[in-house]
Structure formats: structure tokens, C-alpha cells
């Protein structure tokens, strides 16, 4: 039997979504960005909304997304993605609009834009990658760095007495009246991936209802910034990050509570 006899539609268990570009992913091995990209693109492909979707990516590792996603993309200044997404969605309300942001962007320089877009109830989706560190610029402490976690700017671990408390931005925005669906997921295991994809699909579907922002946090590792192997980083994330940032839905629409 030749390889061409094996690679037939009825034998294919999994294939790359056609919405990925041909450019190889440049993220560090083991990083959650690539998996999250795939989930977003699979949802867009399954919903058949490629030509109707606009992604907004700011500075940081997130900015690389436009090289890999074969959809309309717009780059925003650092932290300003929610402001730009607000303009895009208001000008083109029939489009599916999402931002793709890291914790240093969304929960630090972009805190103002995040809070006010969520409070206004703008009708787009925010996808938030939280790895507790500035992954691209040198591994500095981020607003989401958990107590005791070591970074290049707190090499002995985050001391809350000196450096303050980590910011649970997802719980914070869940309290705002303009958020419609708020959830925290991960992508480090097959089961987690399935739950994360389901959450992303809901977030896109909810845009049709014009009820406000859907906010999807993905707790991820940064094995390069954490100075660990991918397996070690996933284990550390399970043992430490999930205790501080527990996975699960935080704010569920009333229609799902019936």
C-alpha cells in the first residue's frame, strides 16, 4: 500500500485548518499561543465566517498572530486593542471582531482600554493569554505574576508587600455590567483544549446577540520566560497558576442558566 492510498478523506483523523497561513509558527516550543491560534481558526472555519472576521492584535507575542491567521487583521498600539476593536465593530457591526492580547498588554498598559470597553459593553470578543510574565521583552514581572513567582525583575519571587498583589483582571471585568460571558480556560491537555474551543465558539456566537463583550482568558505557560522545559512549565502551571487563576466559567449568560 502506498502513502497516497492511506491519505484519503475517510482515513484522515486530523488536519490543519485551512485558515492557517503557510508560514511556520515562530513561537517557542510548548507555548500555548500556537494551540490557541488553531482553536480560534478552527472556530472561524467551522462557523464559515472567514470573510466576516477581523482580528486586532497589539504588541508582544500576540502581534505575531497576523502572520499566521488568514483573516483580516489589524495591528494596534500596545494596550489599545479594545479601543481599536470598539471603532471597528461600531463601523462594521455585522463583522465578527476579536482582540488577541497578552497579560502585559491587556492587564498593564491596556488596563484602561480593557476596563472601559468591558464596562461600555462593546459587542466584540476579547481573547486574553495569561502566562504571568512579559514573554517577549525579557521575562519581567507582569501584573499577573503570582506571589513567589520568579522573573527577571523579581529574581527572588514576587513579594506582595513590596510589589503589590497580582491583578485578577478576569474576575474584575466579570463584575462589570457590559460583560456578557467571562471564562478562564487552558490549552495544555486534550481535555483542556476541547473546553477552550467550546468557550471560544460561544464567545463568537454571542456576538450575534449584541449583548456585550465575551472575555476568554487562556492560562498558558511561558517555558522560555519561566526557564523551564515545556513539560516542567505545564506541571508548574498546574501546581501554581491554576491555584491562583482557577479554570472555569466566571460569568455565564442568563440564557444558559435556564
Fold and architecture overview:
This protein is an alpha/beta fold and 258 residues long. It has a single domain (19-253), classed as 3-Layer(aba) Sandwich (Rossmann fold). It contains twelve helices and seven strands. Strands 2-1-3-4-6-5-7 form a seven-stranded mixed β-sheet, with helices on both faces. Strand 1 (53-57), helix 3 and strand 2 (72-75) form a beta-alpha-beta unit. Helix 5 (103-109) packs across helix 6. The relative contact order is 0.14. The mean pLDDT is 92.
Number of strands: 7
Note the total helix count: 12
Residue windows where pLDDT falls under 50 for at least 5 positions: none
Query: Which structural class fits the helix and strand makeup?
Result: alpha/beta
Helix content: 25-40%
Strand order in the largest sheet: 2-1-3-4-6-5-7
Order of helices and strands: HHEHEHEHHEHHEHEHHEH
Biggest beta sheet summary: 7 strands, mixed
The percentage of residues in β strands lies in 15-25%
CATH architectural label: 3-Layer(aba) Sandwich
Shape: globular
Radius of gyration: 18 Å
In CATH, the homologous superfamily goes by the name Thiamin diphosphate (ThDP)-binding fold, Pyr/PP domains
CATH topology: Rossmann fold
Counting structural domains, the number is: 1
Quick check: average pLDDT? 92
Oligomer: single chain
Notable characteristics:
seven-stranded mixed β-sheet; 12 helices; globular; single chain; Rossmann fold
Quick structural summary:
With 258 residues, the protein is an alpha/beta fold. Helix content is 40%, strand content 16%.
Amino acid at each position: 500500500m502506498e502513502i497516497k492510498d492511506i491519505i484519503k478523506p475517510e482515513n484522515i483523523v486530523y488536519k490543519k485548518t485551512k485558515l492557517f497561513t503557510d508560514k511556520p509558527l515562530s513561537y517557542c516550543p510548548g507555548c500555548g499561543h500556537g494551540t490557541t491560534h488553531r482553536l480560534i481558526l478552527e472556530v472561524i472555519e467551522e462557523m464559515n465566517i472567514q470573510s466576516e472576521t477581523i482580528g486586532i492584535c497589539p504588541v508582544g507575542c500576540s502581534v505575531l498572530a497576523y502572520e499566521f491567521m488568514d483573516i483580516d487583521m489589524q495591528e494596534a498600539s500596545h494596550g489599545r486593542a479594545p479601543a481599536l476593536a470598539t471603532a471597528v465593530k461600531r463601523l462594521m457591526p455585522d463583522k465578527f471582531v476579536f482582540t488577541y492580547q497578552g497579560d502585559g498588554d491587556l492587564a498593564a498598559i491596556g488596563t484602561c482600554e480593557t476596563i472601559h470597553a468591558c464596562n461600555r459593553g462593546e459587542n466584540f470578543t476579547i481573547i486574553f493569554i495569561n502566562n504571568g510574565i512579559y514573554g517577549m521583552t525579557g521575562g519581567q514581572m507582569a501584573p499577573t505574576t503570582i506571589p513567589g513567582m520568579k522573573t527577571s525583575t523579581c529574581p527572588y519571587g514576587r513579594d506582595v508587600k513590596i510589589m503589590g498583589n497580582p491583578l485578577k483582571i478576569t474576575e474584575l471585568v466579570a463584575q462589570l455590567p457590559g460583560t456578557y460571558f467571562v471564562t478562564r480556560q487552558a490549552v495544555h491537555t486534550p481535555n483542556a483544549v476541547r473546553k477552550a474551543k467550546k468557550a471560544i465558539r460561544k464567545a463568537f456566537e454571542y456576538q450575534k446577540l449584541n449583548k456585550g463583550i465575551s472575555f476568554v482568558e487562556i492560562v498558558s505557560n511561558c517555558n522560555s520566560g519561566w526557564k523551564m522545559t515545556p513539560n516542567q512549565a505545564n506541571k508548574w502551571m498546574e501546581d501554581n497558576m491554576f491555584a491562583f487563576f482557577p479554570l472555569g466559567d466566571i460569568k455565564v449568560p442568563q440564557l444558559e442558566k435556564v
